[in-house]
Structures are given as structure tokens and as C-alpha cells.
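Let us begin with a simple case.
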Amino acid sequence: MSNAGGDVSGDDASPPLELRGVTKRFDDTVALDNVSLTVRPGELFGLVGPDGAGKTTLFRIVTTLLLPDAGSATVLGMDVARDLWAIRARVGYMPGHFSLYPDLSVEENLGFFAAVFGTSIDEGRAVIAPIYSQIEPFRNRRADALSGGMKQKLALCCALVHRPDILFLDEPTTGVDAVSRREFWDLLGSLKASGLPIIVSTPYMDEAMRCDRVGLMQRGRILAVDAPAAIAARYPHPLFAVRAEERHRLIGVLRGYAHAVSVFPFGAELHYADARNEVTPARIASGVHEYLAANGFRDASVVPIAAGIEDAFMALMPAPEEPTPVPAGAAS
């Protein structure tokens, strides 16, 4: 894909995105801590983590809206500090919040963003057609009158109308319904098939599974980078789904078991990790069941399961930081 206007400098042999030791601070808060990663050509790459992990700060740096305090970042072979105007002409960016003009119609918003990049809706139609065809019947409707899903599709069209060479999407499906989320990711699959590298951030683990590779983020750090299934396969402990009545009490009792590594709620069940890698899953399940029955959970079920990416993420997360002690006699 090539953009309609602007500087076309940059090294086409370079990775679409490369970060080396990127650090960003806001006063005493470290938003990004020595982040390094490389996105491959044509890849759908996911940045996965909770609010506050540093995903938006990273996106703002690679789209030239912020400068890193340390390290380097290149987009399409161009440096984010030195080549910001050339980068801006060649990237598509959809921020996490709805950033279009609410008083303008669908067609007016799209026309405006096309004009900013020196192109037109007609020139960009081949790229946006699969998406725009779904909202074109509402082209005269004001943007603020659209549903959440339609707003996201309009924002995606505006990010693509100038035919960018790389696409950044910051939590594009947050706040939209499940059907619209699935439709949006189907559209991303179609864009990926065209060879467009896409970097998308998400807090949703089911969306992470649709990426070629993901980077798990927490507290401004990259915990792991790999294919989602490969990250899940690294899970280091036997894992079990446990169900019983009195779920809240069940959590405490399970965490008190001598061989427990972790216990986390997952939907209607608990995921229990056991420290005994040398023991068969059937034997572990039998022992856990006996322990729970002895503690009053005679209805408990304990079933071995394969770890998912969310289990792996929980295992990789650093321990909570201890609060700084307050010296005796200090003012409150």
C-alpha cells in the first residue's frame, strides 16, 4: 500500500516498527520502561495489557505525538524524532477515544481527513471500500448520531483513506458490543490479507488470540513477545478448573492448600495452579478434591485444563509492589 502524498523516504527493507530501549516518564511515573520489540512485515501484532500498562503512551510515541526520554523508535525505517513529518504522511492512527468531529456527517468527516493528507475519498476508495460500504448508507448522518460500532468503522475509514503503509489502532473495540467487536476484527483480517502491517492494542484476551504475535505489557514493561499459542504453552504449572458452591470461601481454602501456586477466578470457575510438575494431573486432581471435601466442599469438581494466554499473563505479571513504610511519628 502506498500513500497518496507526503514524503516517501524510509527504508522498505526495514521492519515496519522497531523499538530499542524506549523509556518514557511523566514526573515520577515510569510509563514505558526499556521497551524493545520488532514488528514484522505484514504482521497483525497485538499489544495486550490492562489500563495503565503503557500501551497508549507507546502508540503516541510511534505516531510522533510524544518523544521518548531514552531509546530509539523507527517506523518504516524512519526515526520518530528526526523524521516525524515523513512518518505522519505514511501512518494511519486510530486513537482510543472517538476523535472525529461529532457535528460533521460521515461523508464530511471522511472528506476532511482525506483532504488533510492531500487526497480524496475517491482516491482512497479501493482501500476503504469493504468498510465504507457498511456505513455509506448513513453518509449524511452526523457522526455523534452513529452507534458505537458504526463510529469505530468510520474512524477506521478515516485512518485508512490516505492509503497508509502501517496502521496503529489503540483499543479500537473498547466500549462496543460483542457483535461489533467480531465484525471489526473480521475487517482487520481482510486488511492484513492485503499485506498492511497492523499494530493494535487491546485489553481483551480473546482479541489477542486473533493476532499473529502479541506483546504482553504490564507497568510499562514488555513481559513476553510471541504467538499467542506459544505464550500459553509456556505456562509452567499443572492447571485445573475448579467449581463448587460458596465460591468466595472456595478461593481462600484453595489458596491455603499446601501445593497451591495461584488461584484466580475465571468466569464461573477458578483456575488453580499446582506446584507439582512431576505428579500426574489425575493424581493432583484427586488430591485437591479430597482436600476440598475435607473442608466442606463435597460438591467440588476439579478438572485438568490447558492454560490460555490469560493464565500465562497472570503467571508472568510481577508481584505487587510493597507500599513504602511510613516512619514512626510521621505526620499523616
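The second case is a distinct protein. As before, the sequence precedes its C-alpha cells.
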Amino acid sequence: MDQIVLIFGLVVVVIILAHSIKIVNEYERAVVFRLGRLLGAKGPGIFFIIPIVDKFIKVDLRTIVIDLEKQNVITKDNVSVGVDAVVYYRIENPESAIVKVENFHDATVLRSETTIRDILGQVELDELLAQRDLLGKKVQEILDEATEQWGIKVSAVTIKDVSLPDTMKRAMAKQAEAEREKRSRIIMADGELKAAEMMKRAADQYAQSPMAMKLREFQTLTEIAREKNLIIISPGSSISPPSSTGAIDSTIGISAGIATKIAKDTLKPKEEDNIEKNKSNTAE
């Protein structure tokens, strides 16, 4: 009988020890309640509780990532966009995370969505597209301040995508095209201004040296003469004094004769071709 009692006692002790010894990992903490009252956070490693009397809740201290659902935001300039964001947070005070809020994860998610809509609704679309990092940092600071009382530290908020309606995409494409056209015209106008300034300087230099102007004229004629099918006629005033009208008249006469000869040489082969065609048609 005594042996049975002893064995029964040993079994009870083993069962109590089995339910009393608890282990939590390095990245976890156990928030212990005794008869409903908070005792504190235990861990990491091994700790003991009193069965039936004590109850504990494990809390993960690692960084938790929340991929928020796409939020429909109306910006300050009344443009409806869809925003995808990611929130990173971790628990710094396990006791507050369990005692001060019913479900710290759901509370953090809902608070994040509300804060993102509030902050992004206060800026214009251009600012939202150009300053994602600054807006994400601003949201992170507000969230961190709001969740500090829950023992939660929001380490970062990242805006990963901004979805625009198709009509807005087309309007932005037209705006970008207009900006590029504006820049190209400004560059062309600046080039024309610089070219005009250089030409004015060159004209002043030629005015001071008439021989340089004559040499430049000869150089231009030389470049034009590379084309074999051109006839270059130099004005009489460039060869003789302006008072010698005979030279000008002779130059005009030579030009007219050359033009007449070129016209005859051009039309003669065509007339011969027409005669040959008529002969062949008559023979047939």
C-alpha cells in the first residue's frame, strides 16, 4: 500500500514538474500571470510556473513585416491613387503589448492604414511620386509615436508602389512631352543666339579687312564648284569697278548664251527620242 502511495506521489510530482518547467527561445519572452495578476516577462531559457495558478503568453521579439493592402488615397489636388506600403515593427515591451492592447498586431495594421491615408492625402500627386522616402519616414515617425504606449517600435515604413488611373498616365505623358519640347526649343534658341553673336564678330572682322572677305568669297566659290552640274557666274562688280557697265553687260550676255546652249542640249535628246518613237509606230 505504501509503495502504491509512493508511486502515485512520484507520478504527481513528475506531472507537476512537467507542467511547471517552461522554455522560451532567445527571440521570445513569456508574459506570466498569477491568479490574473501580471508577474512580468520571463526568458529567454528555462523558467518555472505553478500549474493551474499561473498562465503565460509567448511574445515574439523579432521584426514583423506587414504588407498592407492597397489603400485608395485622394491627394491634395483631388487625384485618386492606389498606394501599396510595407510596415516593419518589433515588440520592445512585451508586458505593454499584452496588457495595454487586446491584439497588438491587428491594432498596428489598422493604425498604419489610417495614418498612411491621412498623411498622403495632405500632399499633391507630384510630391507623392517624387518624395516617397520622406513621406514614408514621416508616416513611420507618427506610427512610432502612436504605438509606443503599446510597447511597439515601428522601425520603417516603405511606399513600394503608387498606382495611377489610365487617364492620369496619359496626361502625365503629354506633360512630359511638352517639357521635353520646351527644353529642346530653349536649347535651339540658345544655339541661334550664340551663332548670331559669332556671325556678328565675323562680320566685324571682315569689315575691317576687305581682302579677307574676298578670300572668303573665293573659298565659297571653290566649295560650290565641286558639283559638276553647276555653272558659276561671278558678278561683274567683283571683277571690275562698279562704273564699268560694259563688263556687267558682257557677263549677262555670256550667261544668257550659256543658258540657251544648256537648254538646247537638254531638249535635243528628247526630240530625237520622240522622232524615233514616231518612226517605229509608223513602221508598225
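The chain has a mean pLDDT of 80. The first strand starts at residue 21 and ends at 24.
Keep these points in mind for the review questions at the end of the chapter.
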